Structures are given as C-alpha cells and as structure tokens.
Amino acid sequence: MSTTNPSTAQAPAKANSKSRVVVASLVGTSIEFYDFYVYATAAVLVFPRLFFPNAEGATALLSSFAVFGVAFIARPLGSIIFGHFGDKVGRKGTLVASLLTMGIATFLIGCLPTAEMSGWSFWAPALLVVMRFAQGLALGGEWSGAALLATENAPANKRAVWGTFPQLGAPIGFILANGLFLILSINLDNEQFDSWGWRVPFLASAVMVIIGLYVRMKLVETPAFQKAVDSGEVSKLPLGRVFRFSWRAMIAGTFIMLATYVLFYLMTTFTLSYGTAAKTEEAARAAAEKAGKIFDPESFAPGLGYARNDFLIMLIVGVVFFGIFTMVSGPLAEKFGRRKTLLAVTGAIFLFGFSFAPLFDGGTAGVMTLLIIGFTLMGLTFGPMGAMLPELFPTNVRYTGSAIAYNVSSILGAAVAPFIAVALWQAADGSPWLVGIYLSSMAVLTLIALFVTRETRDVDYENNSSETVKAS
Q1: Rounded CA separation 312/249 (Å)
Q2: Per-residue pLDDT tens digits for 12-65
Q3: Which residue numbers delimit the Major facilitator superfamily (MFS) profile domain (predicted)?
C-alpha cells in the first residue's frame, strides 16, 4: 500500500508550516519595502542636494522623484522575468533571487559617490539610476511571489487572512526605514547626515537580507504549484499564455490596484515633501542661503514648514494605523468578500480626496487626522490585494499575471503620483486641493474596475479556470 501512494506519506514532511509561511512572506516583503522606502525617504531629504546639486528647489526635488520613478518603469519588466521563472521553475527559487537582487542594489546605493565629488557630476546620478532600476526589477517579482507563498499555503476560507502576511511588510518596512533615518537625523548634525549618515540605512540592509535569505532557503514549494508540476500543467511560456487567456484579468487587476498605489505614495512621499517644505518664501530663501544655494522664486511652492524629524514621527504614527488595519482587512474580506470590501473602501478613498485641503489647513491636529485616516484606508485597501489579485489567475500563470497587473499599476499609480502631486501643488499656489481631486479621480477608475470584476473568494484556487472579469 505504501509504495502505491508515496506522495500521501511524504506530504506532511514537505508542507510549509504556518509559522514558516508567515515569517518567510512577512520578513521578505518587510526587507523589500524597507529597501524601497529608504530610497523614497532619501529622495525627499538628501538626494536633491547630493545628486542634483545644480538644480534648485522644486526642480531638484522633481529630478530626485524622476529617479524614484525609474524603479517603477523597471517593475513590469521584473514581473515578466521573475514571473516567468516563478510559474515555470517555482516560487521558492524566484523569491530568493528577487530578494538577493534588491539587497545588492540597495547596498551599492550606500556606496555611491555623490555628484559634488570631483569627476562624478555625471556618473553619480547615472549609477543611482542603474541601482534604482535594479531595485525595481527585484520588487517587480517580490510581491507576487510572497503573496502566492501565503495564499497557496493557506487553509480553506483563510486566503484573505493569510494574504495579509506579506502586506504587513509595507508598514513594517516603512517604520524600520524611517525610524532609522529619524534616529540618525536626531544624533547627527546636517553636515554629518549629508556626508555619511544617509548611507547607513542602505548599508544596514545587508544584515536583513541575510536573515531573509536564511528563512526563504528553508521553504518548500507551495501545494498549488506542486500540483501543477505533478499534473504536467506548468506553462512553457507563461507570458504568452496569460496575455492570450487572462488579458481581461490583467487589465482589471491593474486598475483595481490603482487607487491603492496613488493613495500610498501621496500619503508617504507627497506628504513628507509638502509637510517639510518652507512655509514662506522668506524661509525658503534663508534655507537656500544656509545651504549655499541660489534661491529660485519661480520654483517655490509653500508647504507646512514642519521640521523633518517632527514630520517623520507623525508619519510613523500614521503608518501604525496602516499595519493595524491591514490585519483587520483580512477577516473583513473573508466575511464579506474581496469585491464588496474593496468597493466600500474605495468609495471612502474617493470621499477622502476632498478632505485634503481642509485637513492640511487644520494645523497639527488636522494633519495628524489626515495621516491617520489616509493610512487606515491604505491598510483596508492594501490588505485584501494579497488574495484578490492572485485569485484572478489560474495556477500556471498566477505569478506572471498578478505580478504584471500589480506592477503596471505601479507605473500608472505610483511612478507618476509624486511628480503629478508636486506639479498640482505648484499649480494651485501651494494648496493641496488639486492633489486630493487627483486621488478621488483615481478612485473612480478603481471603482469601475471592481464593478466589472466578479467576486473571487470562492474560486477553486488550484484549478481556477473560471472567468472572473465580466465580458463586455
């Protein structure tokens, strides 16, 4: 009897335990997002001065954000590369490769010369672009693999709950990255921080990458992928298959993620820029003179005038709500369904956009309220994505399909969001009301995508061949 059913006898030994899945998906995405946020914070705080010293004011900030956006351009390419191997070779090895790529690129950013060093005025920003591109490639393959690791190991009726494990990596990574920046900026003066302090978070990522690699090397393949291997259903060319049979799901998934991406990067990158920008032209002129720069009144847009450390603390408090409501969203999406939950939350995001200007004008209490509400909504919309996007696709193209949808949305939502927000901020003479309208507009597009998508909670995850997007 035992020789005729060896797979049954070996299954328990080969299964990933819950604790291993939690740690591997959570630790990996925490490291990935830590690496990503380290750059996002530096893009606001120091990179405009260190890598674009000849640009002034908002122009330098926009140049820094342009490099920030390079990673989002790379992410769809990363989703194709890592998605191909994730669907053809397996989830485990692909996740190890994505983490290693991100870790090396982030570490090397911490070693780069700056543009003010002799002979590096061109090569320093060019190398920054290359490293940023590598970060984008890695993150293009990371999220989907982590989401599949969690959801393909989840027990019945728990996919949305388990799908929040990798999603928690976003707030955890944010807190780690900005907490370390905060500690450094408190203990170092401006000259020390600009000279070498900004490098520490990038170099420190090496320690966390080693820990993440150790955890992921102990994984075994997910049951869903192993079933596809055993039944001979692994696709030879996942990219061609997903475009042929699941193109509707890719388009729907892209726009389902759109409001989430725009909300997140407005709540982090834009609010930090707006919150720490000089409140008056006189203050901006004085800051430029102190830094030895020429003040450009044409590029000046007034902000809230908060000290960098004070606003980072406010952001970290807000992100705590992000983490809490990411966990809350899993049971909600399991009980009410992914679609109904996201429809309600996206409707709230639409209304939230109209509160931007009133809350920003409400002093510290108003700004803190805006951050708490925004990050609460972020947790409620981001949490269910770990289950819903993968559920749109069958096993043999799930890595590729969910990765492409997730990362194309990153271009439409996140890559341009900081740039558009700064432009709207300037166009409105320092008021953020147009930025809020921008967020509400993106929420409308997400609502449309959700309306044309069927509920995915009850799909057969190991044999999902049903059409989840309504045909027009």
Answers
A1: 38
A2: 446 778 888 888 888 878 887 787 777 777 776 777 777 766 655 555 666 666
A3: 21-457
Mapped to the 3 state alphabet, what secondary structure does 354-387 carry? Answer: HHHHHHHCCHHHHHHHHHHHHHHHHHHHHCCHHH
Residue at 189 is within a domain:
yes
Instruction: State the CB neighbour count (10 A cutoff) for residue 423.
Output: 17
Query: Could you tell me the CATH number of the domain that includes residue 99?
Result: 1.20.1250.20
The verdict on residue 10 lying in a domain is: no
Q: Say if CB 363 and CB 307 are below 8 A apart.
A: no
Which of these, 378, 410, 367, 385, lies nearest to 171 by C-alpha position?
A: 378
| DSSP 8-state assignment for residue 115 | T
Please identify which residue in the block is written with the tokens 């890595």.
Answer: 399
Return all residues near 126 (Cβ < 8 A) that are at least 6 apart. Answer: none
Q: What is the CA radius of gyration of the chain?
A: 22
Q: Is residue 9 part of a domain?
A: no
- Residue-number span of the structural domain to which 162 is assigned: 17-451
Q: Using the 8-state DSSP alphabet, how is residue 156 labeled?
A: T
Count CB atoms within 10 A of the CB of residue 195. Answer: 13
Residue 291: Cβ within 10 Å count:
12
Between the two ends of the chain, the Cα-to-Cα distance in Å is 52
CA distances from 230 to 43, 95, 109, 155, 234 (A): 47, 21, 42, 20, 9
Amino acid in the structure at residue 57: G
Domains identified in the chain, total number: 1
Q: Is residue 5 part of a domain?
A: no
What tokens appear for 199 in the block? 């490098």
**Mean local confidence (pLDDT), 429-442:** 92
User: pLDDT tens across 64-120, in order?
Assistant: 667 767 877 888 899 999 999 999 999 988 999 998 898 898 899 889 888 777 777
* Token reading at 288: 């430029």
3-class DSSP assignment, residue 431? coil
> pTM of the entire structure?
0.85
For 40, 112, 142, 323, 380, the CA distances from 28, given in Å and listed in that order, are 18, 25, 8, 16, 21
